[in-house]
């Protein structure tokens, strides 16, 4: 049922790898930072256990600039003491997304992209959702799909879907905009990223090699929900300003090849009594019978999000699965 198979093929051809291990450098400008990051990242190695990609290690200032030639050795009032390099997983989200859809289809799911839920079907007493009315946005055709449980995984849009079930549903999403810019490849060496966990403004900034270019980011500011979020000049300048503090070259506005913005759904649990607890951990709830909502979370935790959503759906629909959730060890198509 996949629409636009050629779109999927293009994604796979342009990004043949699902993911890779990327060394990331954290600059230290005083000895306290060096010990603090070294200990923190050694703890990270320990927690990774058998899944550790490579051990983190300390590099002197001289070794660091050899590894990352654009890294500033001297700043305004500071001198680079060294860096701690650790390994992180880097993945292509488009490619993993297509891999997930193909894996689901192979397991028997009917997968349909470019399709939108426009209303819900309810039982006679309007006590429970029993399906969804769907519009195929490529053909304009509308149709109904019936289900024992519906899972709402609409990310930042999940409140508008909850409102289709119950117009009085409380708003839970606090949308946050994250902007990234793309720079020419010479700003970062081929196999090494730079991550600053806390800039002078208290933000995280990074520069990572990405598909033959350098990607730098990010911002984290509240925004409104729209289908096509766009980065603005202030956000682009903010990133340029933040990375310039750590480089021995001036990154100019004309060097920005492209920029994009994405909306992160941060949320309060609809069952919470107040709105103080904005969460970056995923939230699963069934606040209308038959509709399970899963939101917030990260790609990093998507398998555990899926497991929690499926377990909640099993309870809601009183389903009798033949096996336990397989998500934890499931290989994605293309994962080899
Ligand atoms: C800038 C940025 C940087 C990030 N960086 C990282 C990172 O480094 N590591 C990490 O782990 N995570 C990262 N994340 C988080 C991760 O990308 C999000 O958590 C994830 O995309 C949320 O996934 P989701 O499936 O819940 O929502 P989405 O990816 O937003 O998907 C929701 C989908 O629902 C669809 N939809 C909406 N309404 C309807 C409807 N009525 N009917 C049918 N479909 C509908 C939308 O079209 C969309 O495709 C980042 C996010 C952003 C924005």
Automatic annotation (TrEMBL):
Name the UniProt record assigns to this protein: Uncharacterized protein
